[in-house]
Design goal:
The complex is a heterotrimer of chains A (95), B (493) and C (495).
Chain A lengths: L4 H10 L6 H18 L23 E2 L9 H5 L10 E4 L4
Chain B lengths: L6 E11 L24 H4 L8 E2 H13 L3 E2 L2 E2 L2 E4 L9 E4 L6 E2 L2 E4 L9 E12 L3 E7 L2 E7 L6 E7 L6 H18 L11 E13 L2 E4 L3 E6 L2 H22 L9 E6 L4 E7 L9 E2 L6 E2 L2 H10 L4 H12 L3 H9 L2 H12 L4 H19 L3 H4 L3 H13 L4 H13 L5 H7 L7 H14 L1 H8 L8 H9 L5 H13 L4
Parallel strand pairs in B: 15-16
Antiparallel strand pairs in B: 1-12, 1-13, 3-7, 4-19, 5-6, 5-18, 7-9, 8-9, 9-12, 10-11, 13-14, 13-15, 16-17
Helix pairs in contact in B: 3-4, 6-7, 7-9, 8-9, 8-11, 14-16, 14-17
Chain C lengths: L7 H9 L5 H19 L2 E3 L2 H16 L13 E4 L26 H8 L4 E5 L33 H8 L5 E6 L5 H7 L2 E4 L19 E6 L2 H11 L28 E6 H4 L6 H16 L2 E6 L7 H16 L23 H13 L2 H14 L5 H24 L2 E5 L15 H5 L6 H6 L3 E8 L5 E8 L4 H14 L11
Helix pairs in contact in C: 2-3, 5-6, 7-16, 10-12, 10-13
Chain lengths: 95, 493, 495
């Protein structure tokens, strides 16, 4: 499948990656090469094959509903780039 | 039926916060109202390397709810990641269920005792489990706008219940939410408190308009920020007329404009545009590789079904059939919840006459609970004592009005039996001759009233009751009235 | 005593019999680190004070007669800087986490701490484990102790090089597509990727969740078994953790069956891309195995040519989601706001600039690839398709394992390549994973041990793969092989 610069721009926005014009161009080329490479998979007949999400297929891993102590607030905020000792702070969410 | 030139079509999306002690994928507490960021751990903070482990109780609550809503419970259910960026979503994705939700289909029947709408069956599309996001609070400091993020709520289990667009009026919507909430309280799966956010509702609304023999649908609006059932009703009423006005203006049908999201402003009483979903968000759903599927057997579901409590609809019907209560009375009791239902039944099983117990509950017990802002347990008037009291009244040992005095005395002293209270109040049965003597005295002292009665004023004798009570507090007002009438009518006086 | 030539097992024996103290061992390796680390860019973080404190604690306990001390108490371990530790930063080789100090220890870290293993330090890696050469780290490329102009392989390049340079007796790596085995092969050491779920992932910064595994690296298979005894086992904090009982890996190490069936994958041994010297080394290995009781035969894995494309859809898809938490909001790097310009959406700008600056090129490429493959309209053709091919790949292995017990083949198609040679050609780089990704896709245990050197003296690795949960058997065969060739810890000769 072929990747247009619009595609790459859309992908970059979905992934919240700000790219310069030059970067958009070079990533487009590289991504196209990779996509062409993985397009080989289209040749495989997978009719009726269940997708394999997990390497080892388990089920029903459940925990009892019991409260356990978590992190202190100080530790929870300790790696935050901006906080006010109570909350994390980020630029405003608008609209 | 409404004479409006359109049909209002409403679908509801209800988010129910399940009352598990710990979060859906970690063991942090779900307690409401704690200081910000004090109920967090690496998992719900989304720290690098942290991994989710599913809370068993959340599955149990979801299955219980699905069964009560007549849904199909999936024997194989799994977890999917819904990917988007938002500061109250620390992992950058929400763990939810996409294509194999735990519950599918189902229904809830609603009706209106006042006949505002015909009884109907509201169908569900699905119900699925997902983790809640944290809270984001806008903050302005020195002209700089920030958002403050509290992740206490992040990871709390939500059951998202989605209805088909089967509702046709704001009243139906309110009734549906009321019945759903009652059901969830019966099931004891949620606190269902809209003020605390444990029950949230969004509405999807549009109009179906007959045009030249065909039906045209207007574009759908999603309405958010509905913080009470009353708000839901008001918002839907407003939105219906707003969409009608808009249609009359632009005649744009569904598909001609993207789905809008509008927020309800309860103060102004209007919905306002929040964002136009120009590009529907691409959530890139895919199965979460950190979680494994849940499989349920027929035995699991059978057991869950067996443990299901009696649901409100069934109790309402049973009370009418079994205890011959009127539909209205049955509904009042059931609407109060399981605690009161069980209280009522215990009283009846202990011998209290069902109808009298029902009216005592409605008139006296509920009133007191409301005045005192107490729960039944806090009130401390056992069902057995209510049974004793109502039995005594039914048997004539005390009349209704003196019965209220007995009740008050019993309330004050938990050890006091009905008999002891009656005695303490000096209530004695008044025998027939005493009563006769009393009535003769009253009539003799109140010739004016007697003459008014003879003249046709049936209520003239009412004034005698107060006097009767003064002479003998134990005189049953009803018996006094009846006997006085008899005496006059028979010409004995 | 030159402890760089001792195995971890030997060091352990000497510690237990009090011939040497943990402090002396730690000092020995610290001294080597101070001499050689910089030249090869192996350790990202070394805390001398901490390791000596940890060693001293073990010495005190041993002196006090503490019988609870396990086999590896006092044996220092180098840790790939992708595992969360509370007492030193976890950088992931990325600007994003350059200053990140985890507020919690991962499970494997906690187990090793409880086992009394001092931390030699955190080792260099490809950024967020994405790469096969340890060239994408913000700390600069790791250099191969056998030839400083060549890469160590990756992404656990620092851990492999650490052993090859004799800077620690034991190391921990992670393996998502070959990231333990390939650098082990390039650096002439042994590395083991356990059955998926055998070792907990709690506390391991996630690259591709359904493929990642933590594993031990050392010179000798015996040491890998000792390490597996400590780090493996069910973890209630990891939903993908295997509930199955784990065997004693050390206890069963010498119990390789007298006869065992070895499969050689036709499509791989006959591939044009396989370097002739590497092929020769593998054939010699097969001869040795025959002497050890192996019955060698050819097997076919018909979908093996689809391993790499399937991997390079699934891994980036999972990674694109796993890395969304790196957004500058709650932890880690945040880009400085742009001066002056008023943005329409300051939040989106913060996200986009932070992630653009915080991640390197390879990581960004994989995020975009994964985002694309999961996006609306492409999901079925890419992600879903790759997962279906994954099942076919697993079925190939299941069928092969009906006829054989172990698969033996090259770990890599070539020996270590030069630094800078492949870093601008993603697809070429990806093809280095030709033989390793299969085990990740199918969840199999896989071991790489040294089996020879090229003409110019570069190490060559041989790979052993087993059925899921046959970890003990794979280690047994590897151990048998090392015994048969008289293998000893062989660090590179450094000036």
């Amino acid at each position: 499948m072929s990747l247009s610069p619009t595609d790459v721009e859309r992908i970059a926005h979905l992934a919240r990656l700000q790219l310069s014009e030059a970067e958009l161009a070079s990533y487009s080329v590289q991504l196209q090469a990779i996509v062409t490479f993985v397009d080989q998979l289209q040749a495989v007949d997978t009719a009726g094959i269940e997708p394999m999400v997990h390497a080892i297929e388990l089920s029903n891993v459940l925990a009892a509903d019991e409260v356990r102590e978590g992190l202190s607030r100080d530790l929870a905020l300790s790696n935050s780039p901006d906080h006010d000792d109570e909350c994390f702070r980020v630029p405003a969410v608008l609209g | 039926m409404n004479a409006a030139p359109y049909t209002l079509v409403i679908g509801l999306e209800v988010h129910v916060q399940l009352k598990t002690k710990s979060k859906l994928f970690c063991r942090c507490s779900t307690e409401f109202g704690r200081p910000p960021n004090t109920q967090v751990c690496p998992v719900c903070l989304g720290l690098p390397g942290a991994l989710p482990v599913l809370n068993r109780q959340a599955i149990d609550y979801a299955v219980r709810t699905g069964l009560a809503l007549n849904s199909e419970i999936a024997k194989f259910t799994k977890w999917d990641r819904k990917n988007y960026f938002y500061p109250d979503l620390p992992k950058g994705y929400q763990t939810s269920q996409f294509d194999l939700p735990i519950c599918s289909r189902g229904f809830l029947d609603i009706s209106d005792s006042k006949g505002a709408f015909e009884p109907k069956r509201v169908r569900f599309i699905r119900a699925h489990l997902e983790e809640d996001a944290g809270k984001s609070m806008h903050d302005e400091v020195a002209g700089k706008a920030d958002s403050r993020i509290d992740l206490n709520r992040a990871g709390t289990p939500l059951l998202e219940i989605v209805t088909e667009p089967d509702l046709r009026s704001p009243q139906e919507a309110k009734a549906f939410l009321t019945e759903l909430r009652l059901l969830l309280l019966y099931l004891d799966v949620s606190d269902c408190n809209m003020q605390e956010g444990s029950l949230r509702c969004d509405a999807n609304v549009n109009l179906h308009i007959p045009v030249d023999g065909k039906t045209v649908a207007t574009p759908i609006t999603e309405i958010k920020n509905l913080n009470s059932f009353r708000a839901v009703e008001r918002a839907l009423t407003y939105e219906a007329s707003r969409q009608w006005d808009q249609w009359c203006n632009d005649h744009i049908a569904i598909g001609g404009r993207p789905k809008q999201t509008r927020g309800w402003d309860d103060v102004q009483g209007v919905t306002t545009l929040q964002r136009e979903k120009e590009e529907a968000s691409d959530y890139r759903y895919f199965p979460c590789p950190d979680l494994v599927p849940v499989t349920l057997t027929d035995a699991d579901l059978g057991k869950a079904r067996g443990e299901l409590c009696e649901l409100p609809a069934a109790t309402r019907t049973r009370f009418v059939q079994q205890y011959e209560l009127k539909e209205y009375d049955s509904d009042v009791i059931v609407s109060q919840g399981r605690e009161l239902v069980e209280y009522f039944e215990r009283a009846v099983v202990a011998g209290g006459p069902a109808k009298r117990v029902s009216s005592w509950i409605q008139q006296d017990i509920l009133r007191l609970l409301n005045e005192r802002q107490q729960s039944l347990t806090q009130l401390g008037f056992s069902a057995e004592r209510l049974a004793d009291l109502t039995k005594a009244i039914e048997a004539g040992a005390v009349d209704t009005s003196r019965g209220k005095e007995v009740f008050a005395k019993m309330l004050d002293d938990a050890a006091l039996s009905v008999a002891a209270a009656i005695e303490a109040l000096g209530i004695k049965a008044v025998d027939d001759s005493e009563l006769m003597e009393l009535c003769r005295q009253l009539l003799a002292e109140n010739a004016k009233a007697v003459n008014e009665y003879r003249a046709g004023n049936a209520k003239a004798l009412g004034a005698l009751i107060g006097q009767a009570k003064k002479k003998n507090p134990n005189a049953d007002p009803r018996k006094v009235q009846d006997l006085c009438k008899q005496l006059i009518d028979s010409g004995a006086v | 005593m030159e402890w760089q030539f001792a195995s971890a097992a030997e060091i352990s024996r000497q510690l237990c019999s009090k011939q040497v103290s943990a402090t002396e061992i730690a000092k020995y390796f610290l001294s080597r680190i101070s001499k050689h680390n910089q030249a090869f860019n192996i350790f990202v973080h070394v805390d001398e004070e901490l390791v000596l404190k940890q060693a001293a604690e073990i010495d005190a306990r041993r002196a006090g007669g503490d019988i609870e001390l396990g086999a590896l108490a006092g044996v220092p371990v180098a840790i790939k800087d992708l595992l969360c530790t509370t007492d030193m930063p976890t950088t992931c080789g990325s600007r994003f986490c350059e200053k990140y100090v985890s507020p919690y220890d991962g499970t494997v870290i906690a187990k090793m701490r409880a086992a009394g293993m001092p931390w030699m330090g955190k080792t260099n890696l490809d950024e967020f484990a994405m790469g096969g050469s340890t060239e994408t780290s913000i700390f600069g490329a790791g250099r191969n102790p056998w030839d400083a102009q060549r890469t160590t392989g990756g992404s656990s390049g620092g851990s492999a090089a650490c052993l090859a340079a004799g800077l620690a007796p034991l190391a921990i790596g992670t393996d998502t597509g070959g990231s333990i085995r390939q650098p082990a092969a390039f650096c002439g050491v042994s590395g083991f990727k356990p059955t998926y779920g055998r070792v907990s992932r709690y506390g391991v910064v996630a690259f591709a969740s359904s493929l990642d595994q933590v594993g031990p690296m050392a010179h000798m298979v015996e040491d890998l078994a000792l390490a597996m005894d400590v780090i493996s086992g069910h973890d209630p904090l990891d939903s993908t953790s295997l509930p199955h009982e784990k065997p004693g890996y050390t206890a069963s190490l010498s119990q390789a069956p007298q006869r065992f069936r070895v499969g050689v994958v036709r499509e791989q041994i006959e591939s044009d891309g396989l370097n002739a010297e590497v092929k020769q080394a593998i054939l010699r290995t097969l001869d040795v195995l025959k002497e050890c009781g192996a019955d060698v035969r050819e097997v076919s894995l018909p979908h093996s040519k689809y391993w790499v494309p399937a991997y390079y859809v699934i891994a980036p898809c999972e990674a694109s989601s796993n890395l969304s938490r790196f957004d500058g909001a709650h932890f880690g790097f945040r880009a400085e706001p742009l001066e002056g310009k008023k943005s329409k959406s300051p939040l989106v700008e913060m996200y986009s600039r932070t992630r653009a600056q915080g991640f390197g090129a390879e990581v960004k490429r994989r995020i975009m690839l994964g985002t694309y493959a999961l996006s609306s309209g492409y999901y079925d053709a890419y992600y879903l398709k790759a997962l279906q091919v994954r099942r076919l790949i697993r079925q190939d292995f299941d069928r092969a394992f009906e006829d054989v017990d172990i698969l033996v083949g090259p770990t890599t198609p070539n020996t270590a390549f030069k630094i800078g040679e492949k870093v601008d050609d993603p697809v070429q780089m990806y093809l280095e994973d030709l033989y390793t990704v299969g085990a990740n896709l199918a969840g199999l245990p896989a071991l790489s041990v040294p089996c020879g050197r090229s003409q110019v003296g570069l190490p060559i690795g041989v790979q052993f793969q087993g059925r899921p949960l046959d970890d003990a058997l794979v280690l047994q065969i590897g151990h048998r092989y090392q015994q048969a060739i008289g293998w000893r810890p062989t660090p590179a000769p450094l000036s």
